[in-house]
Design goal:
The protein is α+β, with helices and mostly antiparallel strands. The chain contains five helices and four strands, in the order αααβαββαβ.
Length: 149
């Protein structure tokens, strides 16, 4: 899929913040010279075509009593898509990346409580039969991640 200039403008604008208004999409659309339905339709298309995999806020889970944990799995290549589907079915999975390494699946768990990390990772292990290695966050680094579309 090729992004047009409007798609790029939407992605670039919405990475910075979503306006804190009663109608945030309408406000963002107006800034971009679009209607709210057009902006929402484009976001839906971008998600359906997997240009973006999710659209939503990032919360500091630890600040509100929750937890984050980086996890890795060694998934047999022939089962990667099946395992990916099972892992991503968990709402606690914030990001999931394939890597060219023995540990070829890396994902972040974000849970409402620290105990939720263990419960979710244990559930993924039961569902997939594959060990979930857990790398808990020891220190926070803010890198201001942003991707120019």
């Amino acid at each position: 899929m090729t992004l047009d200039e409007t798609d790029r403008a939407i992605l670039n604008r919405l990475q910075d913040d979503l306006p804190l208004t009663a109608y945030p999409y309408a406000s963002a659309a107006q800034e971009l010279g679009l209607s709210e339905p057009d902006l929402l339709a484009r976001l839906t298309r971008l998600k359906n075509e997997r240009v973006i995999t999710r659209f939503g806020p990032f919360f500091d889970a630890a600040a509100i009593g929750g937890a984050f944990c980086l996890c890795a799995m060694a998934v047999p290549p022939e089962h990667f898509e099946t395992v990916l589907t099972k892992v991503n079915a968990h709402a606690e999975v914030a990001h999931n990346y394939e890597r060219t390494h023995r540990l070829n699946m890396w994902f972040v768990l974000a849970t409402e409580t620290p105990e939720g990390i263990e419960a979710t990772a244990d559930a993924i292990e039961r569902e997939t039969g594959i060990c979930v290695l857990r790398f808990p966050k020891l220190q926070e680094f803010f890198i201001g991640f942003r991707v120019a579309a």
